[in-house]
Fold each of these.
Amino acid sequence: MRIKEHPILQFERERKITFFYNGKKIEAYEGETIAAALHAAGVKTLSKSLKYLRPRGFFCGIGKCSSCLMRVNGIPDVRTCITLAEDGMVVESQERKELPSADFPNCMVEKKEVDILVVGAGPAGMSAAIEASKAGAKVLLVDENPRLGGQLIKQTHKFFGSKGEKAGVRGIKIAEELQRELDGIEILLNTTVFGYYGEKDTHMLGAANKVENILYEIYAKKVVFACGAQENMLAFPGNDLPGVYGAGGVQTLMNVYGVKPGKRVLMVGAGNVGLIVSYQLLQAGVEVDRVIEALPKIGGYHVHAAKLRRCGVPIFTSHSIKEVYGNGKVEGAIVAEVDKNWKFIEGSEEDVKCDTVCLAVGLTPSTRLLMQAGVEQRFIPEAGGYVAIHDENMETTKQGIYVAGDSSSIEEASTAMLEGKIAGAHASKSLGYGKGIMKEWRIMLEEMRKGPFGEKARKAKERIKEALNEGL
Amino acid sequence: MKDYEKTGVLKPSDIQMPSEEHLKKGVAILECVQEIPCNPCVDACPVDAISMENINSPPATNFEKCIGCAKCVSVCPGLAIFVVKIDGNKGLLTLPYEFLPIPREGEKVKIFDREGKEIGEGMVKRVKKENETHVITVETERNCAIEGRHIKVMR
């Protein structure tokens, strides 16, 4: 299941390690997460559903969906998809959700005081941290993943856009470039910000590093939430069978960890994510049976669709997934044509033999921390769900709390970087550091949202602005 | 709705196609027809043959100016640029390639059209790596050079 050769990527598998899974020895490589290593070893069921104990497998791969919770070294409910495997680690499957025997057993407590806390080290968060730090502010960047870069680290394709915004550069390279610019900024990885406990003038947040057993109390004058998004689920029988993945989850598995999801894939959704991930599956040597799209037309860029078609992958518009079947794992799926009213057309069913189903059906902004911090939110369909109302400086309705990137409205990495810069520069400027927001960032943001593909994002931002002006 | 929005396959009428004269000298065919915020091809062109009104407009090619140098082929993030040069019944097709195995010069390849249909064979004339992308030039029959958009190594 591990990819040996890849046209774009090189997987460094230097040190072999061994851990225990339900008493069985599993070989892995240093740098692999528990879930990726288990997948490579053929373990597809990671947890069970709470009520009916249905098997659940790898889905999102970035710590958002909780279908990979396992007991690790005695600690229950560990997200194995973002926890690195270690030599001698004891990993066990849990039948039910368990509570730890004690709150933060024997953990160290550390206090941090900073000017600006940035939550999330994806393109938006890294850009915010870089700008704020360049301006002279003391910045702390926190991310719950073991690596920096957010979803950039799995984007093997070259980015669109203009030269200034790194067009023509692969996402993985952009992540490396941004990482280099983080030099001198304090970073906490493997650390989850779990709660906001703000007082009048300071923002206090709690964070935990489960790997090293450290509890952080973070006091910040300003906070930028750049928490990204999570992949949407689609309702159909069998949607929880191991082998049904988020398309982004598959991208993480194969492009970050070099593990193939399976042999033959059905891709659901012909937006850019569905098209790009399908092509990357082909690059990894995985067969793509077809791409289906419920809408009457392909939602992603034509150029991405063209890349697939010339490789012989068919795209069926006005088609959706009826069910996935299989005994404990995906063995195939029934797809069918849909009419104008989204109803399945009887007799159009087709049985697709596959071991992997990828769902590329949109993203929902991750806003729970913002919600808990008490900023005003609105449900804006064009933004992907509930989002924090923010002004043109990316500041929310609560002073000193900013939002940037996908957690402010689903968009592109290129716009996320610009929003991050704006948030970081404004936050630092309001503390008396630096020159503030550069005009060209705003101009470029506007440019990128101008075309027909920017319409959704443009509308989302207009609605956010309207909500702000209405004073909620 | 345009056909390609449903099929993912362009027809020659969707694209700015060069004339016979231009094909003889060898020019870039840009299969980028939508308004996408993207412009690296404009920057890459050494003779200003590619232009755009703004970052969202589809590129326009001036075939008179184009010298078929293929500098734009490897910078296009959409892998949507091909250089075609025709000489009688023969042709040269230059395309971006991001699969394994990487073709070697002198090797035989199968050629596929925009729909992934196999339309013929060719011989690899040149393999270059630019901007982290392999750019492959294949010698083949005239129609394969005009319609071919993908290759597979026969190894």
Amino acid sequence: MWIKFFQPNWSREHVYIVLFRQKVTTPWAKGGPMSETPRRNFLKVAGAAVVAAALGIIGYKVAKKPSPTPAPTTQPPSTTAAPTTAPPAKEKVLIFGLKEDIVTLDPAMHRKRVTESVIQQYAEPLFWRTNDMRVIPHLLESYEFVDDLTWRLKLRKGIKFHDGTELKAEDVKFTLERILDPNQNSPRASMIDEIDTITIIDDYTLEIKTKYPSGPLMVDLTYQEILPKHAVEAQGEDFFKNPFSTGPFKFVEWVPGERIVFEKNPDYWGGPAEVPPVGPPKVDKLIFKVIPDSATRMQALKAGEIHISYGFTADQAEEMAKDPNLVVEKVRAARSVFVFLNTHKAPFNDKRVRHALYMAVDVDAIIQNVLKGYGRRIACMSFPGVLGHDPNLEPFPYDPDRARQLLAEAGYPDGFDAVMMYDEEWRKDQAEAIAYYLGQVGVNVTIQLMDWGTIKNEYLLKAKGDMYFGSWGCGELELYGNVNSTFAREKDTYAFQYHNDEVTRLMKEALATLDPEQRAQKFMELERILQEDAPAIWLWEQFDPWVYRKEVTFTPRTDERYNLVDADISV
Amino acid sequence: MLDRDLLRLIGRRIVGLIPVMFGIAIIVFLVFSFVPGDPITMLIGKQSDVSEEFIQQLRHKYGLDRPLYVRFFYFLRQLVHGDVGTSYQFNRPALEVVLERLPATVELALFALAVAIVIAIPAGIFAALKGGAVDRGIVGLSVVGFSMPNFWIAMLLILVFGTTLKVLPISGRLDVTLTVERVTGFYILDGILAGDWEVVRSALSHIILPALSLGIPAAALIVRLLRNNLISVLGAEFIRAARARGLRESVVIYKHALRNALIPTINIVALQLGFFLTGSFFVETVFAWPGMGRLAVDAIYARDYPVVIAAVMISALFFVLSNLLADILILVTDPRTRGVR
């Protein structure tokens, strides 16, 4: 009985056997005993039926074609107007192609960049970045440091939630405390856990006391969107089925896996004066459409089903650049790419070996040939634009002869074998290129794809394994963003438990320095030490192609956030 | 007679479903306990502010740090109450997350089946009766159709109908500027219910390409099967006897030959429905079809095992049900099977 449930009467194998083994006899084959006429008649009928059916289908399609609906099927490709979905009225609809769906509309309950960027259309943070990445007060009018531990924040007056109530200090306090509440289980709690207390001074003023002086808090507050206290308290979790806040767009609907729809908030306060133009959004409707497959997303852009998207390979970007309807922009991704080396294990515990590996890889050639220019060489973890980046720090030169010499000095004249793990599948050709260059100096590298959880928990944190090829984002645009957890913190560094007292000390001091200039000095000193010690091969800063249609006005940002208030589309 | 057989069959299968569902849930749970990687690491991703202590705290809050037998016990207790757990990614009941995506998958599967039948049945009959070059042509085409992976067919269809001819949309279920009240979740049906013909039209135009991608390989399979069965039935003695009785050829073919040839075909068609419902991941990905398959695969990557368990259980349910459907159809079409079971 059990077996019966699991076994369909005809398994797929069974079908194959029937199809390919069975001898077919055709008794009516040519000259057979059968009379021909009735079969002919039947065939005529059957044939006519098939043709009729086919015509019917085509007829249906043709009949449907000239209907005046805005479906993609009906627009001639030459029109420059929103080709797929221009609604009958001159409503401006902007469709943004997302590579993944959002996981929630609750700003406190996720750690996903895409989700955050979508939420930011309806809710706003206290601080924000200009398009050239300066941190400025957003919902705040001003801020001041009362002392090293106390931040005094003044809210702008007259900012209204979508329900018409005014944004007050209690909303800010509520939002931040909700993230920090242990019962909330927010994966964002650790971003702002230096906050000790939040005190309301008056309706528009509050004071944040931190447990220790914290330079990064301002940047971390750019990621926390403020919610209306009264509504979240009244509705609980249900609030996030139909959320609202102060943002430039009002939430309309989320169809999971399919789309997230927003409409213009005509009463939007406009955003800070530092980021012109100030005012409500230019488009009437903003729709995020989820298309996970990048090849389909590319075709959808070409066909005009979506207007803006990103998350493409360099090859796809090259192909789209040929399309006259599309604009391809090379945008910095705020992400460094590197190979971590296990400094606790021979032969990587020898600094000469690490320097040799660093000098063996022709990074510029990989950028040109494999990345098609979508990268720029870096000297260490940071890149231009990051606070603490030292423009005078030069990468080690590509010098395979010197590399061989160093390996010989270290006692490996014939090289050695090593395994290089990586977790981002699309980087396979990059991993192969690196393995090729290391092979040129005698280091035979086997590349192995694994998932991040396994690499981190079983190898990096246990200081096992040889090399890890990966990338780390630095959306914070401050050096700690991708150096702290990888090389500098006191324990559990992800670079195979790398530890260097000097690096750790400098990082600690820098994080407690509130003045950005002084912080930058510490970061620069730290990075010089790190580069010389070479616990990693530093490769390139990643660039991403952002693609949008000609009829769209749009400025991509380097922090993977979407500036859609200013985006426009001609209809 | 028939009714009693039918009821007994249905009753037995439904009773049998319970251990199947439990067994599957337990297997998936155990597999995920031994697969490396954990949901919290995947939830957090690569973040610089997160200490390992914080990750451990979150693991503790979700109960992931408890020993396997404790977690297993909790899991079983939940399961008895019909709850497979809360999704780590979405922070909502996993079953709810999966059921939300179900109508998309079912709608696509039904259309794919319709495509397969509409193509396969006439072509199979045509090939069997006509023979010669027509037969070889159809069989040849079916080999091609069957050999092409459905995601490849999908890419071809996108290039031809979407990008080049620009006659059909290539992504999603509905024009994103259109909205329909989700009553059943089947957009075509919802559109009809709402009387909104624009929605119906848009939903239909969106479903054509994915349904073709899934339906063509299945059609190729069914064509060959039907053709072979029909040919062998046509050679059987009862057909000769029927002809000898002077029956019209159309009666011989439709009432006698086709009915017998269709029996094994029906079985395969019903099973194909099971495959459509559970194996449409590639097609769902290529056409950005927000179905269950895509959700389940994403959940595997995220180690979101409550969602995986829910999706696998529903898939199993579909397989059992499509088998049941096949058996019922056989019982109805083939009198020889009655009273045997």
